Amino acid sequence: MEKQHKTKAIYHLFGTTIFISLAIASFAFCVICELKKSKKKELRIDGELCYLPQSQAFGYGIAALMCSSIAQIAGTGLFIYCRRSTDFKSSKTSLASILLLLSWASFFIMIILTGTATSMNRRQAVGEGWVDGVCYLVKNGVYIGSGALVLIAMSSTLMSCYVMINKSRAVHAQVK
């Protein structure tokens, strides 16, 4: 029984470490994107036509999207693992489920913001632009906002696991 508990603790620690590492990497990539995004001085205008070269933020944005997606999936797996390993079958898991739902909501908003901003940092050819032949630049703070949403998603997922584990411990303490 003790060996099984240690194995569960190791899996939990390993999953949490991977989840936190990927979320922090995604946040870091968002910060780098904010620094490397296309600037107004890079925009070239020829009459009504515009040209914007691809910035480094495009690659970093893709990396941020990949890290946050894998982190969100790993975090949800961690939540499921916490729920299954607690032997806690009650309707009191609603707070943990709401926190996980908040995590997914902030993740989806982050994906939309980062994906759109990243596609705007791709090369915008003369006469093609980003949409309808018009060149667009990403506003200041979009990537930082996406990074904040990554941190909110990570915190919500970790809190949902914490709620599950603590509710389980409280039930086991009352039973003893």
From TrEMBL:
The UniProt entry lists membrane topology as: Multi-pass membrane protein
Q: Which domain of life is it from?
A: Eukaryota
The region annotated as signal peptide is: none
Enumerate the UniProt keywords alphabetically.
Answer: Membrane, Signal, Transmembrane, Transmembrane helix
Does this UniProt record's set of keywords contain Iron-sulfur?
no
Database matches in InterPro entries: DEAL/Modifying_wall_lignin1/2 (IPR009606), DESIGUAL (IPR052222)
Q: Which residues cross the membrane?
A: 12-37, 57-82, 94-113, 142-165
User: Where found, per UniProt?
Assistant: Endomembrane system
Q: Name one GO cellular component term.
A: endomembrane system
Keyword Transmembrane found: yes
Q: What is its main location?
A: membrane
List the Pfam families.
DUF1218
The similarity annotation says:
Belongs to the DESIGUAL family.
The name on file for this protein is: Uncharacterized protein
